[in-house]
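Minutes, methods subgroup
Present: GH (chair), OT, SY

1. OT presented the first of two proteins processed in the latest run. Sequence and structure tokens recorded below as shown on screen.
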Amino acid sequence: MKSSRDEEASMEARYQEQDSDGSPGGPCRREFHHPSVAASVAWQLVKTAGILAPLIITELVKDNDRRWRLIRISSVGTALLSQALYTSRVTHDRWTDRVERSPEGQRQR
């Protein structure tokens, strides 16, 4: 049976990063290339709200004119919010790409 010290040593050896020339480096840190989880959750909530809004409005509002007006407003609101989230994500991605390509960004790694 392995001791905890042996297990730690084997885990440490397993997670050693290798540079492009094959020499061992520091601990392995893989870059995560997807947008942040919070933005993905927010986007999913906006889409869900856009899908459910007409159903909820139909159940709660009995006046036909007011019901259709609220449905149109909610549709436009969720579309604008969805577009704002998308624009924010694209702007953030472009900014991080620009930072990574700049000489200062290369030195920070």
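2. SY then presented the second protein from the same run.
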Amino acid sequence: MSTNSYLSRLPPRRALSAWRWLPAMAAAAVGAIYGFEFGARLGGALLGAVLALNGALMGGLLAEGAVDAGRRLATLLRLRR
């Protein structure tokens, strides 16, 4: 059995553009900074590190969702023409 048939069914990979990952990285950095400052005020450096990870994760997820929603909205508006 050839793997050619399996590979031919896969969709072509699109290059990851900066518009896709740059907002998520920026939001993760901002979330990490503010999360660490908040956690350090509440309970010290250890809680600051935990909340920095949490802030980075949540910031990245929210930004990725916003980029995806904007892309879907643009596609929907393009289809309505």
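Chair's summary of item 2: Helices lie at 4-9, 18-43, 45-80.
Next meeting: continue with the remaining queue.
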